[in-house]
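Q: I'm teaching a short session on how sequence maps to structure, and I want students to see two examples side by side rather than one. Could you give me a first protein with its sequence written out and its structure tokens following it? Keep the formatting plain so it prints cleanly on a handout.
A: Of course. Example one:
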Amino acid sequence: MQFLWRLVPLLAVLLLCTDQSEAVCGYESCPDTKANMINVHLVPHSHDDVGWLKTVDQYYYGAKNNIQHAGVQYILDSVVAELLKDSKRRFIQVETAFFFKWYQEQTEQVQRLVKKLVNEGRLEFTGGAWSMNDEAAVHYQSVIDQFSLGLKVLNDTFGACARPRIGWQIDPFGHSREMASIFAQMGYNGEFFARMDHVEKRKRLDEEAMEMIWQSSESLRDSDLFTGLLYRHYSAPPGFCFDILCSDEPIIDSKSYDNNVKTRVDDFINYVKTMSKSFRATHVMVPMGDDFQYEDAEINFKNMDKLIKYVNERQVEGSKVNVFYSTPSCYLYELHQMMQTWPNKTQDFFPYSSDSHSYWTGYFTSRPTQKRFERDGNHLLQTVKQLSAFAHLTNEKQTEDLDALRQVMGIMQHHDAITGTEKQAVARDYDRLLTDAIVDAQDNARDALRVLTNLTAGEFDSCLELNISVCAFTRDSANNVVVTLFNPLAHPSSQYVRVPVKKDQYLVTDEKGREVPSEVVPVPWQVLAIQHRPNNTQHELVFKASVNKIANFYIRVLPAPKDAEMPTLNRFERVHSIKRQLSRVRPIDEAGADEFVVQNSLVKLVFLTKTGRLKTVDMNGVSEKIEQTFAIYKGARGDNGAAERRSSGAYIFRPDGDVSVLSDNVAYTVYEGDQVKEVHQHYNEWISQVVRIYEGVNRVEFEWLIGPIPIDDDIGREVVTRFESGISSEGVFYTDSNGREMIRRERNKREYFEPDMTEKESGNYYPVTARIALQDGQGQRRVALLNDRAQGGSSLADGQLELMLHRRLLNDDAFGVGEALNEQQFGTGLIARGKVYLILSSVADTSTSGERLAQQEVHLPFWKFFSSSNTASAVKPQMIPDFSDFPQSVNLLTLEPYSSNELLLRVENFMDETEGHIVSFNIRHIFDTLGGREIRETTLDGNMPLSDMKRFKFHHDGSMPKALEYFTSPFDPIHSFASDDSSRFSVTLNPMQIRTFIIKWQ
């Protein structure tokens, strides 16, 4: 009511003049500048975390202000009211999640006023995704999704004037090259951020290199993106924070002794002059805002109005400083107009350190179970989106349920969500939000599968506790169960499926009634011992399934022979103090041997009999000595009063002393079947592992179980898995950038500067979203590790790779969260379970394309649905497009409902230029199967016609710019209709290229 009361005097006039046809947005709405002056672009903004110290709703509604004073709804109320008072004022809005929630609550009159502000360029959306995503732990698929969501909401609500043109990544803790590439592919002109290694920042300040051209891809042409680092974080200049959360003096311009105009103007002009020495252009950008500011925006704008007035009045006295309200897009427009040249950037901005002892590399792993849960959310989201598209689910509830999962997944990408840097209460709320959205979205999957198969009454339940080998649907019996497998990938795939079952004999058949070989293996006893795990099922049924898109498999329990104890598998035994036996085994044949071998047709593993440890891996024609173990870093504990007393915490990885490698002998049991062979290893009371190989699968699986990490001795611990080989890697290793291109790393080195390596372990840690690898100089031997969630990783010695799996710490690191990273569940430390996959190969003989293909299956394996049935069910293939003729390197990145009569299709060539080549294929049959009438091509996000893309092109140092240049589409975008010839549906993809289409189907 207070907000509406403020607007009453304005409504009568403003509503009369809200003429959409006269709207001027874009660069025409940018402020006038002055030649031969320092033009200062003041950018009012509020950085509003979508959860951190408070939950999403607590931040929005302004609850729990004893934790942090913040209420986003009041910020937006206040800002809109103040913008309406003066057409020169500007404000940028970043997080669409908060804005859309607020906008939906407004009256039609207020919504019309907001549209007027947008259409006049006074309220500008910057970034525009659902949240300001992290850049280390996120996967590119989820980043693209949350930008598509945010930008579509803005486009549907306001039209083209709301489209952001700038990435505004001011708070993430390091910056990825792939994020820059995504901005470029969406048609953004540039991006700005606020965090950079403290040594690099000093060097760039000295060398006028704060702004640069980032070559965001080694494979994609036209991938350059202008990138700028903000001068002083994202805060207002010292002394000029006019917000109610600050205590800086206002500008007093009365005729009194308190008048401070001269000193305030002097201070600001001196600040600008100093700042301008670090920038090449005669334009500088000064953010005016901070976390959750502008709750009483009248105070902010009234003082900024005065600042602008009095600074500019100095020009008659010879001052060369010109100040005005602006936006990042207007600032970058002016830089483009100047046709200057800029330095080059090719790698990324990881790891980020804020001082000599504070490398922000701990959050790469923090909250490992939540990082995995986010991946599960994405897995189901891609599954449900595709199923909804196939079945044309369009009713209101189906749309709401799908949107809810999209939105929560957008929240999960936030730089204090997937990072694990939020308070524990907020982490639980994220889990609640994602759980609720997953449960509701499963209804969509059920609705679709009842249409797409002949199991019209199938339950199609998902088992959400498979991470502890539990499925409620099979808890009592797996008899007469149909397992429906959905393959989110484009190509048919053969994968092994594991279903929690009781110890019975089973028959598995496919849709045609053909028997599928299967076997039963025991669940590790350490998993059975997890507190509150129901132990009805202590085994898993394993079978190999081949699936195009959807396939059904029927499980039946066979009657047990009388007076017979059923063997689980034909196995041999090697037990060293294992606490319990779960199956009958036969004695080992080679008793007394120094080694034992576990092998199938593709992989041979050699273990040492005495220690139980892996010794050698033989696969892909390469044999290499590889020792795998676990190691523990002690987390540093300090009072954080000085850099050298920094604690290891949610953000910071700072070990205290050398790593402790677990070198004791390992208790183990070996299980051998025809399809799967497993070595169950027990390292200590809280670390165990299963080393596993499947017949026909060319990788080794390491399924680890860690926790509760003990803290009885008041020591925090950070647990890593290490793989030691004899490969001479010469300090070089490779990590992925958000699951896409690989980046070359060199130990103790950076691209642009000499880093401070006081913290030698954490200073060499990098984010590993999907893959880390090393190889010898000739490429004869290469080891790659693939993971199932984001983690930190490194190569701290030649031939060695390590991934951090779990962390439990006892001190806060004093970077804002205010809590130690001490996760608990059921009254004790958190237990985490996950998988790492190893591939040994020779790059000289083959490219790393095999790793890419494996990475696809690890990221999006089959999703399992369970139903009861007395008979096997069939799939209706006529309703599902056939993607199998895509070239091997082409993936179906996205297929989803876009509107009530449109679908979004996104395809990618996921090989880079060293692994693949240009490919072409035709999508006419897909278009037809989906009922297409029209198809049009868009930018990556799906919300702007690709033909409309016109992106600023900046010039590298050493070039001689003669005219303004732009990036446009290098090819003719597809825009075709059902009546057109099939040749109009041909798609060509360069390595790493993604193309996005909107298909109108009715």
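Q: Perfect. Now a second example for contrast.
A: Example two:
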Amino acid sequence: MRKSYVGEEKEREKAVEEASELLKFLENELKEKRFFGGETIGLVDIAANVIGFWAGVFEETTGVELLTKEKFPKLSNWTNEYVSNSFIKENLPPRDKLIAYFRNRFGIPNASK
């Protein structure tokens, strides 16, 4: 997924297509569940943290939108549920500091959504 956000434009386009296919798979796995295992956060949810938290950080940093509510409504809802969970929220790094760090690291001024 990293290449979807940073890299050469041609490489990024291909990576976005590939990541979208993988996200479709996860979208289908959620079915009507709140979390991947049901009503509580489990191992798959924690493993999917790269989508639940980090994708949003990279989207805001770069302006590349990959995980949209229109394309992936179930996954978007899961993301909101996941990062809103009090235990998860208190153990995540500060989002604003990460965005500032990655903008500096990759030389990205202020990306607009």
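Q: What should students look for in example two?
A: Point them to this: Helices lie at 2-5, 9-30, 43-47, 49-62, 73-84, 86-91, 95-105. Also worth mentioning: The mean pLDDT is 89.
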